[in-house]
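re: the backbone from monday

yeah here it is again, tokenized this time
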């Protein structure tokens, strides 16, 4: 999930797996697989960067199993909000 900002300054958390496309028209419009479209304040580059960062986090935490993997995920999630 990635955190974005709507134009009324409300926070929005989007499932990155549900994003179908991101358009710049000149505003950033995200099309979801459900058919819904959302206009956000972030640039296209920022949205793509957040999706990549999220996928790296999931990929990295998925490789480690057991207690160590859980601790790694908690540690990574703690810092997740600062760079998304």
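seq for it, each position gets an aa:
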């Amino acid at each position: 999930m990635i955190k974005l900002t709507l134009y009324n300054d409300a926070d929005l958390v989007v499932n990155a797996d549900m994003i179908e496309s991101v358009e710049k028209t000149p505003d950033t419009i995200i099309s979801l697989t459900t058919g819904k479209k959302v206009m956000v304040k972030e640039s296209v580059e920022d949205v793509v960067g957040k999706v990549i960062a999220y996928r790296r986090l999931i990929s990295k935490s998925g490789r480690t199993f057991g207690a160590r993997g859980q601790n790694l995920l908690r540690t990574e999630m703690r810092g997740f909000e600062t760079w998304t």
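The chain is about 45% helix and 25% strand. The chain has one domain: 2-83.
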